[in-house]
From TrEMBL:
This is Proteasome subunit beta. One of its GO terms (biological process) is proteolysis involved in protein catabolic process. The keyword Cell inner membrane does not apply. GO terms for molecular function: threonine-type endopeptidase activity. Pfam families: Proteasome. Keywords: Cytoplasm, Hydrolase, Nucleus, Protease, Proteasome, Threonine protease, Zymogen.
Length: 259
């Protein structure tokens, strides 16, 4: 019996030859062992893998610029895959993007955004605005809506209009605002931010608030942890301000933690 090397149709035809296979190929395939149809022997194999994500990222504006803070834990369900993930993508010297959702999706598309921003600068002889950069990413994710992308990112930067933050997700939604937190630990971070946020904060107070908010998430959320990284963006561009292990922050802020 002849068998197609391209599919499993002979197995489903009950031993009859597949007329779509050329005669010369049928001769070559004489004696090819029968293979089971995976749709019958492996039911459910075609289903998408269920991805479980966990992280905490935040960004907010204040009178001195933008503060961005993230954790560094990557999880796959209950398994901690890494404690050293860099969740801030440096798009250009004045733009940062955060990662929440699928690490591969966020990393690829934000690096692609960096390329598009550079091309804009070369074409127009000026730096792209934060608003325009976020719109580029939003248009991209909208095209892939429903295709399995998993992204919840914040595009943060400083342009002619001053400090700006835009939230963009994998459904193409785009929203500007003064304060955002994204990820499984965001509910805990919002609790700290809502109680301490003010536009008139000093730089030191703003950085301390961001650090405390991420720490609160790492303390309560099992999917957040590792190193807490803080960035600051002003008219001179972004700068990484601090990196602190969440365990060290526990001893720093343990007086504020309630059992």
């Amino acid at each position: 019996m002849a068998m197609s090397a391209l599919d499993y149709r002979p197995a489903r035809l009950g031993g009859r030859e597949d007329d779509s296979v050329p005669p010369e190929l049928q001769t070559q395939l004489q004696g090819t062992p029968m293979l089971p149809d995976p749709a019958e022997s492996c039911p459910g194999f075609e289903k998408h893998v269920k991805m479980v994500h966990g992280t905490t990222t935040l960004a907010f504006k204040y009178k001195g610029g933008v503060v961005v803070a993230v954790d560094s834990r990557a999880s796959a369900g209950a398994y901690i895959a890494s404690q050293t993930v860099k969740k801030v993508i440096e798009i250009n010297p004045f733009l940062l993007g955060t990662m929440a959702g699928g690490a591969a999706d966020c990393s690829f598309w934000e690096r692609y955004l960096g390329m598009r921003c550079r091309l804009f600068e070369l074409d127009h002889k000026e730096r792209i605005s934060t608003c325009a950069a976020s719109k580029v990413l939003s248009n991209i994710t909208l095209q892939y809506r429903g295709k399995g992308l998993s992204m919840g990112t914040m595009i943060c930067g400083w342009d002619k209009t001053g400090p700006q933050i835009y939230y963009v997700d994998s459904d193409g939604q785009r929203l500007g605002g003064p304060l955002f937190s994204v990820g499984s630990g965001s509910t805990f971070a919002y609790g700290v931010l809502d109680s301490g946020y003010s536009y008139d904060l000093t730089k030191e107070a703003a950085l301390d608030l961001a650090q405390r908010a991420i720490f609160a998430a790492t303390y309560r959320d099992a999917y957040s942890g590792g190193t807490v990284r803080c960035y600051h963006i002003d008219k001179d561009g972004w700068k990484r301000v601090s990196e602190a292990d969440s365990m060290d922050l526990y001893f720093k802020f343990k007086g504020e933690v309630k059992a």
